[in-house]
């Protein structure tokens, strides 16, 4: 069982930055692929980024490539999402999630394979 708690959301002006954190409970954090998703009102949940269990490999959704950076600290059981050059369309609830699957399956862009989810943190970008 893994419990995930996101933090770091808030209100920021367009062009600004935020850093989200996701703290995980349990001693098996380093066994999970970690992902970030977001959901805007009236829209489907959207894949943002994923990171392999070691942190050596990352993958990003097209909407955030070059602006967001995912990282993890397995010693602290925490995954981060550094968000730069924020745009109003980045507004939404951001969720972190843990996937026990294998990176080679390349399923981390879909929400269904993830085993655990946090409660989400709101990010609002004003124009």
Please supply descriptive tags for the structure shown above.
4-stranded antiparallel β-sheet, mainly beta, 127 residues
Explain the layout of strands and helices.
Blueprint (H helix, E strand, L loop, with lengths): L3 E4 L2 E4 L4 E7 L8 E7 L6 E6 L6 E3 L7 E6 L4 E6 L8 E8 L16 E2 L3 E6 L1
Parallel strand pairs: 2-11
Antiparallel strand pairs: 1-3, 3-8, 4-5, 4-9, 5-6, 7-8, 9-10, 9-11
Describe this entry's structure for a reader.
With 127 residues, the protein is an all-beta fold. The chain is built from no helices and eleven strands. It has strands at residues 4-7, 10-13, 18-24, 33-39, 46-51, 58-60, 68-73, 78-83, 92-99, 116-117, 121-126. It starts with a strand and ends with a strand.
Distance between the termini: 40 Å
Report the structural category. mainly beta
Report the strand count: 11
Q: What is the number of helical segments per DSSP (H or I, 4+ residues)?
A: 0
Shape: globular
Evaluate the radius of gyration: 13 Å
| Main beta-sheet annotation | 7 strands, mixed
């Amino acid at each position: 069982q893994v419990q995930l708690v996101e933090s770091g959301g808030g209100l920021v002006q367009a062009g600004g930055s935020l850093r989200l954190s996701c703290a995980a409970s349990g001693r098996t954090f380093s066994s999970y692929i970690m992902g970030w998703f977001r959901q805007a009102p009236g829209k489907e949940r959207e894949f943002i980024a994923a990171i392999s269990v070691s942190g050596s490999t990352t993958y990003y959704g097209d909407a955030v490539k070059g602006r967001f950076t995912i990282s993890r600290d397995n010693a602290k059981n925490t995954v981060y999402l550094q968000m730069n050059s924020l745009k109003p369309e980045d507004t939404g609830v951001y969720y972190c999630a843990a996937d026990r699957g294998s990176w080679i399956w390349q399923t981390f862009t879909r929400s269904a394979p993830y085993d655990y989810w946090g409660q989400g943190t709101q990010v609002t970008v004003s124009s």
